[in-house]
Amino acid sequence: MTYRIGIGYDIHRLTEGRKLFLGGIQIPYAKGLLGHSDADPLIHAICDALLGAAGEPDIGENFPDTDPAYENIESLELLKKVDLLLKAKGLAIGNIDTVVIAQEPLLSPYKKQMRQKIAATLKIKEDCVSIKAKTNEGLGATGRGEAIACYAVAAINTKEA
Ligand code: MG
Predict the structure, then answer these.
(1) Tell me, what's the pLDDT at 161?
(2) DSSP letter assigned to residue 110
(3) Is there a contact between 65 and 75 (Cβ–Cβ < 8 Å)?
(4) Which residue, 23, 65, 139, 146, has most beta carbons within 10 Å?
(5) Cα(11) to centroid of ligand 1, in Å?
(6) pLDDT at residue 83 greater than cutoff 60
């Protein structure tokens, strides 16, 4: 079994008048993230980590929002497409580890639900998905509550599950 590793990163600006979607779920908060569709940076970072591990171009290149087929597509739908792409190449997801950087809201009450949603979408075990939430100690754009950023690392293997 050969392992391949990928890394993904994403950041979206917080703004009023939008719902907050993170890790495939909606979280109650006064602001939401700006971007196409649900603008979910955690799912976008995971997509890029998986695509990177598979040796594929990033989500922007694979699913351009200028293409009407992908305009306003839900992030979980993109994740499903990435999963299909991996399966078509005979690649199986080993595990996904992530860090969410958000000064607010407090994310610990939602981490389990996010893990379950991501694991169910990818049909992998819940303990194959890890979500760590950090504030940025008030520093920089994320620390000032202007944006939410996410990092993701994925390990995939060449033997189908
Ligand atoms: Mg994004």
Answers:
(1) 46
(2) G
(3) no
(4) 23
(5) 6
(6) yes
Distance 43 CA to ligand 1 centre (A): 8
User: Separation of 143 CA from ligand 1 center, angstroms?
Assistant: 19
Structure tokens at 134: 């950090």
Dist. CA 160 → ligand 1 center (Å)? 28
Q: Which two tokens stand for residue 106?
A: 């407090």
Q: Are strands 92-101 and 129-134 parallel, antiparallel or unpaired?
A: parallel
Could you tell me the distance, in angstroms and rounded to a whole number, from the CA of residue 4 to the centre of ligand 1?
23
pLDDT in tens, 87-120: 999 999 999 999 999 999 999 999 999 999 999 9
Rounded Cα gap, residues 70 and 82, in angstroms: 13
Domains of the chain: 2-61+70-158 (3.30.1330.50)
- The pLDDT tens digits of the residues spanning 11-28 come to 999 999 999 999 999 999
Angle at 55 between CA 4 and CA 75, to 5 degrees: 100
pLDDT at 14: 98
